Amino acid sequence: MTDASELYEVFLQLKQGGPHEHAGNVHAPDAEMALQNARDVYARRFRPLSIWVVRSDHITSSSPSDDGPFFDPGDDKPYRHPSFYTTPRGVRDV
Amino acid sequence: MKAESETAELERFEARIDRGERIEPKDWMPDRYRRQLVRMMSQHAHSEIVGMLPEGNWITRAPNLRRKMALLAKVQDEAGHGLYLYSATETLGVAREELVDQLHAGTAKYSSIFNYPTLTWADIGVIGWFVDGAAIVNQTMLAKSSFGPYARANVRICKEENFHKKQGFEIVATLASGTDAQRAMVQDAVDRWWWPSLMMFGPHDDDSPNSQVLLRWGVKRKSNDTLRQHFVNITVPQARAVDLELPDPDLEYDEESGDWTFGEIDWDEFYRVIGGDGPCNRERLNARREAHAEGQWVRDAATAYAKKHASRQ
Q1: Mean pLDDT of chain B
Q2: Are B257 and B267 in contact (CB under 8 A)?
Q3: How close, in Å, is residue A67 to chain B by CA atoms?
Q4: What share of chain A is helix, strand, coil (3-state, %, to 5)?
Q5: Which partner for B208 in B184, B187, B203, B268 could form a disulfide, CB atoms 3.0-4.6 Å apart?
Q6: Percentages helix, strand, coil for chain B, rounded to the nearest 5?
Q7: A29 to B153: CB separation less than 8 angstroms, yes or no
Q8: Which element (helix H / strand E) includes B82?
């Protein structure tokens, strides 16, 4: 088969003010059809507020081997959390 | 050296499985895990797609608009489920076109149940009740599969399939409380679909070549026989509630285990249908090939349109 279809990742915004969340992917020859296919495949039962489609090969992702050093900087700074700090007894709503 | 690091990788992989972690597409996995997943997930996808055919047969002859809308929506859902599952399979690096080609070439399998004909309207009710009921039992288990994309596809499918079973049982219950002719028609459908539905869970655990490794690696969480027993246990009371008889003289409640014990499945029939010699195997594959060939102009037009617009920008 030689169908020139591209893979698109689909993101749906389900709630007012909520984030777009990944739902899955679709094949389509262009972005316009990807959007229509995404509606037909991932929104048959409800009305999402909006849909994003983005070509899968335009996404750069971290790889499983990154799980050490790449993410460490986010995991070794307890002083970024409020529980790191002490408040004098009896003081409230700090 | 390579063999040694493979062993270490395998140990790490199995430790992750034991901790109940989900495996994602880019993670290291044994070749056999990947191969079994591609086989199982593509068979599941093909089953959804071929599964549209027996029910599609009755869309134009649904007895009223309510039934027709429900059946149309259900068949459309099956197409969607096929697409979720092809997408999930593609995360393992195999192209959808390749999988579809395998189906059309007859080298890929799909659920044996779809090789049986839908002779009357009652079959549509009984398919929803038995076939979707059995599929829900299976897919609820697969929603906890160790492979992330497969588990997520099954979560989505399970949410949608509940109405499939309920609309089927509504048809069955309506016919079962109807005229003598309607009762006879639905009993006949029950008689024809019961045993093939039990076959949907696959061979006995002892005769299932892939089961052990699939269970060890958490692709499946329960064995074929366990799932089949669960299906029988939930279905027997439903049949009694609408006063229909399941065609098994050996069906009996076992006080000790709390299970409904049942007779032996005709495994010769099972292997004959799996092997391509069921009542409708050739018809189903021809219908798929034709549908694909007749849709070629749509794909060509969409591609030409995309090219034209890309060149203008």
Answers
A1: 95
A2: no
A3: 11
A4: 30, 25, 45
A5: B203
A6: 70, 5, 25
A7: no
A8: helix B65-90
Q: How many CB atoms lie within 10 A of CB B249?
A: 8
Q: Which residues of B touch A45 (CB under 8 A)?
A: 160
Report the pLDDT value the prediction gives residue B209, as an integer from 0 to 100.
83
Task: Copy the structure tokens of residue B106.
Answer: 């007859």
User: Are B310 and A26 an interchain contact pair (Cβ–Cβ within 8 Å)?
Assistant: no
**Of the partner residues B24, B153, B306, the one whose CB lies closest to the CB of residue A30:** B306
Interface residue B90 vs chain A (CB under 8 A): yes
* pTM summary value: 0.91
On whether the CB atoms of residues B113 and B131 are closer than 8 A, the answer is yes
pLDDT at A9 over 80: yes
Chains A–B, number of C-beta pairs less than 8 Å apart: 51
Place of tokens 């134009």: B60
Kindly provide the ipTM of the predicted complex, given to two decimals: 0.80
Q: Is B279 helix (H, G, I), strand (E, B) or coil?
A: coil
For B244, what's the count of Cα atoms within 13 Å in the CB-facing half-sphere? Answer: 33
Q: Of B39, B38, B73, B37, nearest to B55 (Cα)?
A: B73
Q: Does residue B68 contact residue B59 with C-beta atoms inside 8 Å? A: yes
Could you read off the pLDDT of B242-281 as tens digits, one per residue? 999 999 999 999 999 999 999 999 999 999 999 999 999 9
Low-confidence ranges of chain B (pLDDT < 70): 1-4
